[in-house]
């Protein structure tokens, strides 16, 4: 019997039955990645949302935070993120999202990466959130962007998480000399190491939007685009993708 389920996260799954036969017994949240949903070459659909961090909009309303989730934010701090104030936009997004994530999620971790990775040394809470914010604000952009070591190292450091939110411009050095098809295959192999984790991508700045949206689909997560105002009164708003 073949059971077709949508890609992404099914919340609070109790059972999948055909007649009196229970064919899926796992309970709770179930992450279904693109590779488990179809045998065709077409990518599955993923949620696409637009973030506006420019005027304190409620970004958290776009994010599926809840008490069952242990989440990890990973922000790209490679040299390319310095251009066009991308890193400042990413910092603004994180400083708006983290308090709500701490209030709603089981555990929250935050890390950054370039050629290496760093993770704030504790799960975030109300007592250390201010220290985490200062740590984020002090981040400088240098070197290249190698996401594989960041994901593997950060998850090894913090333990299993249900969701990873990756903020990046998509200029990832791991696979930059490979054709796009090979890049996605490399991502699919890396993502398969964490079948119970959803990987979400937030495109920051003039990002490689198409490939990041596909990576989110393969990762069983959502894709976000960042908006910000070009002037102080917000009359001109342009997408960063």
Task: Describe the secondary structure blueprint for this structure.
Blueprint: E1 8-13, E2 16-18, E3 21-24, E4 28-32, E5 48-52, E6 70-76, H1 86-104, E7 107-113, E8 117-119, H2 129-137, H3 147-158, E9 163-168, H4 180-191, E10 198-203, H5 209-218, E11 220-229, E12 237-239
Parallel strand pairs: 5-11, 6-7, 6-9, 9-10, 10-11
Antiparallel strand pairs: 1-4, 2-3, 7-8, 11-12
Q: What attributes characterize this protein structure?
A:
two-stranded antiparallel sheet; 12 strands; 26% helix; globular
**Strand portion:** 25-35%
- The parts where pLDDT drops under 50 for at least 5 residues are 18-23, 34-45, 228-241
Give the N-terminus to C-terminus distance in angstroms.
42 Å
Q: Indicate the radius of gyration in whole angstroms.
A: 18 Å
So how many helices? Answer: 5
The secondary-structure element order is EEEEEEHEEHHEHEHEE
In one word, what is the shape?
globular
Roughly what is the average pLDDT, rounded to an integer? Answer: 78
Q: What is the SS-derived class?
A: alpha/beta
**Sheet with most strands:** 8 strands, mixed
Number of separate strands: 12
């Amino acid at each position: 019997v073949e059971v077709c389920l949508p890609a992404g996260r099914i919340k609070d799954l109790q059972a999948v039955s055909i007649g009196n036969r229970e064919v899926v017994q796992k309970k709770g949240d179930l992450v279904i990645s693109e590779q488990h949903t179809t045998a065709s070459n077409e990518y599955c659909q993923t949620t696409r949302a637009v973030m506006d961090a420019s005027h304190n909009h409620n970004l958290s309303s776009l994010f599926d935070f809840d008490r069952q989730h242990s989440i990890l934010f990973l922000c790209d701090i490679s040299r390319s993120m310095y251009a066009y104030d991308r890193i400042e936009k990413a910092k603004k997004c994180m400083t708006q999202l983290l308090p709500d994530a701490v209030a709603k999620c089981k555990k929250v971790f935050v890390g950054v990466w370039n050629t290496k990775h760093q993770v704030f040394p504790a799960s975030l809470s109300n007592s250390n959130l201010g220290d985490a914010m200062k740590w984020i604000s002090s981040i400088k952009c240098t070197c290249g962007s190698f996401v594989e070591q960041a994901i593997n190292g950060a998850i090894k450091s913090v333990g299993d998480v249900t969701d990873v939110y990756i903020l990046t411009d998509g200029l990832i050095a791991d696979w930059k000399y490979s054709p796009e098809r090979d890049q996605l295959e490399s991502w699919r192999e890396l993502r398969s190491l964490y079948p119970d984790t959803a990987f979400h991508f937030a495109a920051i700045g003039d990002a490689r939007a198409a490939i990041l949206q596909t990576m989110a689909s393969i990762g069983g997560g959502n894709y976000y685009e960042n908006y910000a105002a070009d002037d102080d009164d917000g009359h001109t708003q342009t997408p960063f993708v």
